[in-house]
Amino acid sequence: MSNFILPLNTTVDNLKRDPILDFQANIRDIDDLIQLTFGEPGFAVDDRIKAVAKVSIDHDRSHYANSQGEVNLRRAAVSYFNRHFNLKFKGIEDVLVTQGVSEGINVVFMTILEHGDGVIIPEPSYSPYTTSLTLAGGIKIPLDTSKNDFKITPESIEKTISEASIPVKAILINYPANPTGVTYSNDELQAIADTLKKHKIWVISDEIYAALTYSGQHTSLYKLLPKQSILLTGLSKSHAMTGYRIGFIFADSKLIAKMLTVHEALAFAVSTLCQDAAFAALTVGEDVPEYALKAYRKRRDFLVKTLIELGFQPVNPQGAFYVFTKIPQKFGNDGYAFAVDLAKNAKVAVLPGEAFSKTTPNYIRISYASSDNDLKEALKRMKNYLQNGVKYE
User: Fold this and answer.
1) Which residues form the signal peptide (predicted)?
2) What are phi and psi of 136, to 5 degrees?
3) How many CB atoms lie within 10 A of CB 58?
């Protein structure tokens, strides 16, 4: 029960704080901590993009923007994603510009869900999905991927749907995945798409890390299932523009029109300045993800190799910029206690696996998005502490 004199919304009153933010709060007062927690790219925004943002300020682009998104940005987004991911969006009515994918997922849930509808979420997963789902009145139906190399399969989807005790309205699939970095081949996705087509449920595909796929071509589920899919993406990860809060929802124009009503109630519009910068990112800054991808691939190889040497059992990521790894056996099965110990004694912050799923309590997630120097220093500290018992002072 609430301690407030007047009542609150019961759902909000009972809502627990996001476990990622909760863990961060528990270690925030530790001095000289190297943060390998958040998915925050360490690259500065490209100078060409910043130049356009500065021009936007100088030209007083500070008024209300088009609530669906500025026309030139939506046109550029359709062109960019059609070209890069072989999609076939018809035009600017097929896209909605949101305050990052965070707002986008809330808009989608609030548009398609009735109270009590079930949404399949493969786990481990990005924990704020659950918060957004709860606020929209939906119920999570977890799909455990930990015993299948952290991938969903047609069989696991069928099993989850058949065993669900509530109506399944949608499935939310994120790939390359946070926290594991796994992704799917075209053949794997086609088999998944064939299964989902039979069940006629909404397919929410969060492909925010699509541009950070290390080998092969990323295939969008929207390409395979356009009639029942909703594509979420943005510029935070591909163009290191987390603070600009640019997300895109792609879907059939009739569905976009319904989601626009929800978006206008939540945020009305994304700032004009940020939309101008986003337009630059999708045009003159189109090549930005290429050099970021090279740096991430190099860091991934260095991190995975070092972790194996230290006794970890990492999942080798195929995309994004995280390594999800079992902690060394000698430290037991409590990844949370291990992460706290690492923060206090080695001054390196990582996230416990239980923040992403109850099925992975002996895992941690390490982000290698920050910088080469931070990653090298963090691994040096970890090695000294784990192998030699040397605490970082």
Assistant:
1) none
2) -85, 0
3) 8
381: alpha, beta or left? (left if phi > 0; alpha if psi -120 to 50): alpha
Burial classification of residue 106, based on how many CB atoms lie within 10 Å of its CB (0-12 exposed, 13-18 middle, 19 or more buried): buried
355/126 Cα distance (integer angstroms): 8
> In angstroms, how far is the first alpha carbon of the chain from the final one?
43
pTM score, whole prediction:
0.95
Closest to 133 (Cα-Cα) out of 125, 320, 147: 125
**pLDDT of the chain along its 393 residues, tens only?**
567 789 999 999 999 889 998 998 889 889 999 999 989 898 999 999 999 999 999 999 999 999 999 999 999 999 999 999 999 999 999 999 999 999 999 999 999 999 999 999 999 999 999 999 999 999 999 999 999 999 999 999 999 999 999 999 999 999 999 999 999 999 999 999 999 999 989 999 999 999 999 999 999 999 999 999 999 999 999 999 999 999 999 999 999 999 999 999 999 999 999 999 999 999 999 999 998 999 999 999 999 999 999 999 999 999 999 999 999 998 889 999 999 999 999 999 999 999 999 999 999 999 999 899 999 999 999 999 998 876 665
H or E element at residue 140 = strand 139-144
If DSSP states are collapsed to H, E and C, what string results for 46-67?
Answer: CHHHHHHHHHHHHCCCCCCCCC
Residue 114 region by backbone torsions, left for phi larger than 0, else alpha for psi between -120 and 50, else beta: beta
Q: Where are the alpha helices (DSSP H) in 96-217?
A: 100-112, 128-135, 154-163, 186-199
Contact assessment for residue 232 and residue 104, using Cβ atoms and an 8 Å cutoff:
yes
Strands of the sheet containing 118-123, edge to edge, are 95-99, 246-250, 229-234, 202-206, 168-174, 118-123, 139-144
